[in-house]
Hints:
Elements: H1 2-9, H2 21-53, H3 65-95, H4 101-127, H5 133-149, H6 155-158, E1 172-173, H7 175-194, H8 202-224, E2 233-234, E3 240-242, E4 248-252, H9 259-275, E5 284-287, E6 302-305, H10 307-312, H11 316-324, H12 334-347, H13 351-358, H14 366-380, H15 384-400
Parallel strand pairs: 4-5, 5-6
Antiparallel strand pairs: 1-2, 3-4
Amino acid sequence: MLAYYFTDITSDLRLDPLDYAPTVVDAVLRNLVPVAYAVAAALGAWEARKLGNADVWQWGVVRSRYTIAAHTLIPVVTLAWLVLLLPVLCGLIQTGTPLDLSGTGLVVFAMLLCAAHAVIGFGWGVAVRHIAAVPVIAVLDFLALGWSTGLTVPWPRHLTSLYPGRLLFGELPTAPAIVAPLLVGLGAAAAVALLWSGIPRPWLRAALAGALALACFGGGYAIVKDWSYIGPRSTGHGSMSCTNDSPRICTPSAYAAELPAMREEATATLQTLRKAGIDAHPATLTDTLAAVRYPEPSTTTDWHLPLGTSHAVGMTPYQVARTAVRFECEPPATEPARLVYYWVSMKVGQGDVYLRRLSTEPDFTAQKRELLRARVGKVLDMDAADQTNWFRRTVASACEQAP
Length: 403
């Protein structure tokens, strides 16, 4: 497992988790879950086959079948849990991320399903005593999870606990996303266990087990059938640090030491924008890392911008200036919008930053770059009042010309 970790899993840990444990736990588990489940099922079948070959089930009733199975599965489940826990521990140590309650919950979730797969494998080994039962259940279990990830239909993957798309900072699976795979996995394990019950008629045991398995699968399917490739996730679970001054600046706690510098940059930029006649009076500046997948739109008082990442590369003034520009339409016309964005970028001393961003757009040629520089250069030669009037007219025309 350590060889598997260092050759395959470490590549998924390159993204800075921002001290958010679920990001690390998810990155490790998405690689390990198919292996751990297959190990649990295969070893469960192996132990059941040994008991069957020893004619344990034909002995006198001293202990119940469930007690025998539970005692037999303890080392199997323990080993499968170690397959999960040791690499998770390595990932947390490697990234320097402390384990929190949310990360622990994801691990416990995987451990429950590991135990369910061990029970399913044990039932398989009771029914099929041939030595081939062990590799067959291992391969089938492993491929069942892998098969779900290769389908264009998304619902099978949501029932396996292999969540598509890694968990970003502050994200967690919603309660239905946790319940659906648990319902299918634990329901299947309960159905297998029901086959060992003391109900005298085999056909009745089989009917009840089949009904339970179908009901649990149907319930899980009903939960996930309308989900897209990325299942529902809740946000806002990451630890945030905020300043107490106005404007209030909030960023992931991993950047807490940089908050004073961020505030100084943001405050200076806001003052520059206000001198240029721009309405820049936000009450809060919140890092977009707080909700990357489901970003909140900025308002006149609450601005959302990439504070942490932009501060790391010296682009905080550009991001603040860009957020200060507010169009009444979406999207605005391209040419007037570019003029406005370049003008505010020049006002805060980061015009080159905006030009570098524009250079990634295929339609922005060298000729357009020079024309943009020339037009904005003429505006910058005007007095302050004329520049403010130009800014307001251009913002309005960007919506008048919008498609």
